[in-house]
Amino acid sequence: MKKTLLTMLCGIALLNGYAQETFPRPNGGEYVFNPNKVSCVTESERISIQEILEKKKDLLKKTLKNIKKDNPLPPSFIWPVRQTEGFGYNSVWGISNYVDHSSSSDLIDFNCGNRTYDGHMGTDIYLWPFSWKMMDEEQAEVIAAEDGIIIFKDDGHFDQSCVMGGGSWNAIYLLHEDGSISWYGHMKSATLTSKDVGDSVEKGEFLGKVGSSGNSTGPHLHFEVYDAEGALIDPFTGNCNSLNTSSWWETQQGYTEPNVNAVLTHTAPPAFNDCPEIESANISTTFASGDTVYAAIYMRDQEPDTTINLRIRRPNGTLAGNWAFTFDTYYSSSYWYWLISPNMDGVWTWEAEYNGETVAQTFTVGTLGTNENSLSALSVYPNPTTGLVALEGSTNVSEVTITDALGKIIAIEKNPDGIKQADLSALAQGVYFLTMTAENNKSRTVKIVRQ
Asked: Which residues are in the M23ase beta-sheet core domain (predicted)?
């Protein structure tokens, strides 16, 4: 799979004692998923699937009779892709293609734009950033967009396809109470739900992991919908939707959803390798004194003439860098990074503010738990924990910050009178970092395992 990557030169920003208003222009650029518009399903494959589904409906007639309601409403779909618990991205997806509404070779999506390709009959939701790494580590999952019955499932097929002709896909098909059917294609092999044909699933229930099986150029979900008569439906409503007049979404999102998917730090530039090689992400949240830190942002639906505000905070909370970067064009997904040289040991914070939302990540410079002081004698227990962690000792802890394994800030508590415990009970199982700061701005970071 080829990606479009625009790269520019930049210098190293030295964080040496004052807030900097201008930083060098970053490295990075656009990432294009499926640039060659490879078709997800051939016409012969689609016909074969539809024939199988009709036969399955006949076999399930008795079951359908028991659940059928009078005047059933069309589905009210929720978004079918979500992040797996235990990972800390701000978001894990982007949209490459909508349904094509043109009967000719022209490209017209529901919003009268061209975010589609000729004959495309579904919505393609791809993983971003680092889609192959996400697939390998099963960081994103497919869920039922509406209550339904599994009418057919197909698993066990090769799931690292990069081109047309990738064979059959791993997929689940749900039959809804109004007779409509939703398709969930390209899933990762051997990750599909253990439920079988005829079993019911609830809206939001796990169906499998996102993969790249079948005709696919990378990990994504192909979501396709048909009504009870077998007519294609585009769940999005818009001026150019010629298939249905109303939205089939519980809450229809915008045509574009500008967002910061991730704020990360790296030991070296991220590299997007040729499909299906896992990307060289080089993600790290710990650096030795004197190391160069690659501070990166990963955008979805980057809008032109919009500005992202970026900040680097020292361990004592003061600003080491504070600057803005204005985007000059639209990209469905993009990445940008700056090279910085922190000059102080301790826990730093890298922040990006876009469209009113701030996404932050902490990273440690020097030995984890630097600043030798009475914090080192503080007892932090139990560890592992199922919830509450006690902070016991003579030191007055005035601030506690909890971050996940990727460095994303989960929670911050401040109390000048002292903090005696931290509550992780609402967090998913996994590894977290608890940073305790004393009144003298010295800090200590402890790895906590949430069981």
From this structure: 138-235
Q: How far apart are CA 59 and CA 52, in angstroms?
A: 11
The structure's pTM equals: 0.82
DSSP letter assigned to residue 160: B
Last residue of a domain, one of 233, 253, 277: 233
93 neighbors 126 (Cβ within 8 angstroms): yes
d(Cα 128, Cα 133) in Å, to the nearest integer?
A: 10
Q: In angstroms, rounded to a whole number, what is the distance separating the alpha carbons of residues 227 and 233? A: 6
Mean pLDDT of the chain: 89
| Cβ atoms of residues 133 and 278 within 8 Å | yes
Tell me which residue has tokens 């079951």.
63
Q: By CB neighbour count within 10 A (0-12 exposed, 13-18 middle, 19+ buried), where does 64 fall?
A: middle
CB 439 within 8 A of CB 405: no
pLDDT tens readout for residues 23-68 = 677 999 999 999 888 888 989 999 999 999 999 988 877 666 655 5
What would you measure as the largest C-alpha separation in the chain, in angstroms? 75
State the pLDDT at residue 69. Answer: 61
Please name which of 282, 293, 299 lies closest in space to residue 320, comparing C-alpha atoms.
Answer: 293
User: Would you tell me how many other CB atoms lie within 10 Å of the CB of residue 244?
Assistant: 18
Q: Taking the CB of residue 435, how many other CB atoms lie within 10 A of it?
A: 23
For residue 183, the domain's CATH number is 2.70.70.10
pLDDT at residue 409 is higher than 90: no
H or E element at residue 62: helix 61-67
Supply the DSSP string of 26-57, one letter for each residue. Answer: PEEEE--SSTT---SS-HHHHHHHHHHHHHHH
- Residue 121 in any domain: the answer is yes
Residue 191 lies in a domain: yes
Number of H helices, E strands in the chain: 3, 28
Question: Which domain-ending residue is among 233, 248, 277?
Answer: 233
Judge contact between 90 and 359, C-beta under 8 A: yes
pLDDT average, residue stretch 278-296: 94
At 218-230, the pLDDT tens digits run: 999 999 999 999 9
